[in-house]
């Protein structure tokens, strides 16, 4: 019986970093979403800290991937060209919202979201 190879913290960290970059967020932004410091995100990505089951689930959710993403073997892509990552509507909204530098505009977006949420 062949022994199954266990994914190392470093391998999982590399996948976290790759996915974070694919969706265009910084370590600081991911850290804010996870409720940790950006240094903690660095430790996850470098494989310095082991991730428990709960943290892997939280990170997978924050990066919009299934937990299995971190354990699947890397697949060589046969497609040439730039790959556009899948972003949920929430991811797109958050990505654009974070680019707004004017606090008045941010407040307007928040008010519009509140109104839209009540309309459903």
Description:
This protein is an all-alpha fold and 120 residues long. The chain folds into two domains: 7-75, 434 Repressor (Amino-terminal Domain), CATH 1.10.260; 87-120, no CATH class. It is 57% helix and 0% strand. The chain is built from six helices and no strands. α2 crosses α3 (38-46). The chain starts with 8 loop residues before the first helix and ends with a helix.
Return the CATH topology of the largest domain.
Answer: 434 Repressor (Amino-terminal Domain)
CATH-derived architecture of the largest domain? Orthogonal Bundle
Main structural class: mainly alpha
Radius of gyration: 17 Å
Question: Which runs of at least 5 residues are low in confidence (pLDDT < 50)?
Answer: none
Q: For this structure, what is the CATH class of the largest domain?
A: Mainly Alpha
- Rounded to the nearest angstrom, the distance between the terminal CA atoms is 55 Å
What is the CATH superfamily label of the largest domain? lambda repressor-like DNA-binding domains
> What's the total number of strands?
0
Percent helix = 55-70%
The number of distinct structural domains comes to 2
